[in-house]
Amino acid sequence: MVSTSDALDSLIEEFSKLPQIGRKTAQRLAMYITRQPREEVEKFSRALLETKDKLKFCSVCCNITEDEVCRICSSSKRSSNVICVVEEPQDVFAVEKTNEFKGLYHVLHGIISPLDGIGPNDIKISELLIRLGKENGQRVEELILALNPTVEGETTILYLSKLLRPLDIKITRIARGIPIGSDLEFADEVTLAKALEGRVTV
Amino acid sequence: MILKKIVLKNFRNYDKQELIFNDKFNFIYGNNGQGKTNILEGISYSAFGKSFLGSAEADCVRFGENEFHIESEFENDLENIDHIVISYSLNPRLKSIHRNKEKVTALSSEIFGRYPMVYLSPKSLSITYGNPSDRRKFFDILISQASRLYLDHLREFAKILKQKNALLKNYSVYKKYTYKELRDLLSSYNEKFSEVSAQIIFRRLNFLKEFKSYFEKNFSFLLLQNHKGYINYNSDVFGEITTGSDTADTDFIRNKLGKHIEETADEEIARAITLSGPQRDDYVFRLNKTESGSSREINLKEAFEIKYFASQGEHKTFVVALKLAEYDYLKDKKSTSPVLLLDDVLSELDENRVSKIISHLKDYGQIFLTTTGKNYNDNLKQFYSEEEISVFKIDNGKTVE
Ligand SMILES: [Zn+2]
Questions:
Q1: Most buried residue among A61, A153, B67, B361 by CB atoms closer than 10 A?
Q2: Which CATH number fits domain B1-116+336-401: 3.20.20.70, 3.30.565.10, 3.40.50.300, 3.40.50.1460?
Q3: Which distant-in-sequence residues (6+ apart) come within 8 Å of A61 by Cβ?
Q4: How many angstroms separate the CA atoms of B317 and B218, rounded?
Q5: pLDDT per residue over B6-49, tens digit each?
Q6: CB B155 to CB A162 under 8 A?
Q7: Which CATH fold topology does B153-322 show?
Q8: How remote is the CA of residue A107 from the centroid of ligand 1, in Å?
Q9: What is the CATH number of domain A75-173?
Q10: Residues on chain A touching B195 (C-beta within 8 angstroms)
Q11: For residue B41, what pLDDT is reported?
């Protein structure tokens, strides 16, 4: 694309830095912005800055929040003796959507992956240890490790369970529904096989 | 499985070429360097989404062009047609595979293992002559085509191995962890490593047990004498395991491997690399020439190792037997006849083996054969009728009549 505006170029550049946004999509998003009324663009840019300025990590669970302690951690309706450990804040949304879990969370903000140079000290593991060692409040009885069934997730679970073993807390992990590496494509085939097996005469 | 047709566009030395194939025999001839093998390579792209010669996609784009396309049509035994399109562009680097207009990935079950194909060329001799990695690759691809689960284990294993090696390197080169952190992390990786390794080794041993009869049948078919060939499995941890001996279960393999890895952890840390596991195991090919030994269990002292002691002819017999066994095995596992690709094999094999193979070609499904001379075509006419043979003469990236 022949450049006609430096401002537009730098906007495209910024959009293309976002995860899963390619060059073409970045161009489309930038063109969309140019067509919006000024108020809309102002709202958008304010939202970006406010997110950055106001959000911090919850001092208890490390989830992102605007407060010192997040809404989940400060809720009196939740039981503090069960903690569900997840990789990212969006995993909290996913578990919350099921409406099944009434305990608290701990967000690691990543997963151990030597290939990406991420070790135990690069994610919120020490925060978890400090939290579990605290004598105040209710004792934590169970820790649910709800990490993704990837190689990195599996080995982080093994590492955490070794690390936490001396603490005498029940450690569980969520059931693995899909075989590693094969994603849903394999499940589709099984489903199809089942459908063929159970076919009826019309 | 029948490959009905293929269209090559800007692939290797082909500008645009459509080829309609015979359900039975496709005789492709021409001088060297004219593009006979390129047709077979294009066919392998259709079946596997990649080249069986291991070429990089970028090398397959016709000189001066930006992208190649390969379109093909497979017909299965129920006469359903699958339409496969493989596209690759240099700039931007992009490869896509479509099956019946739907985008799929090369290792997805929509492609991988669905169009069984056996490729025999002089290069196949690397299976017996080459490195352990050549043998592992041959068997890994074969087992994966029959078992989706094995392929999944291999992919998971590759990831663990990469992570474990990165961990060892992060420690020794970049001093990223304390020794205690390293040992804790390493034991987590080793636990997972042993678990998946055990699955892979267990499946390889079971495969060899099953493959044994397929191999023996083809080996004795090719041989004039009453010699016997064996395929065993060899690893640092378990030594040479005779195929057919009681297969250890996955727990046994996992524990023994896990123990060995723990014992050698210091050496792995010092050398910053994974030292044992299925990524270093090998297959051992042996030949027993003592006539009396045919029905007894293998005696390793009587059976010598192909790699070190076999003649060139014995190597060839072993490889052809392996390939024909691969064919029979896939045929049973996939319940369809694989496509057989014979690339320039006639010149490499002696008359005896060639006439033996040719006299049995009728037992196989669709065949593609490349050769420099036209004379074998006459040889074939005693086995195939006129309409069962299509002849393609290749000259500089074109078919000429
Ligand atoms: Zn919180």
A1: A61
A2: 3.40.50.300
A3: A70, A72, A73, A104, A105, A106, A107, A131
A4: 9
A5: 999 999 999 999 999 999 999 999 998 899 999 999 999 999 88
A6: no
A7: Glutathione S-transferase Yfyf (Class Pi); Chain A, domain 2 (1.20.1050)
A8: 9
A9: 3.40.1360.10
A10: none
A11: 95
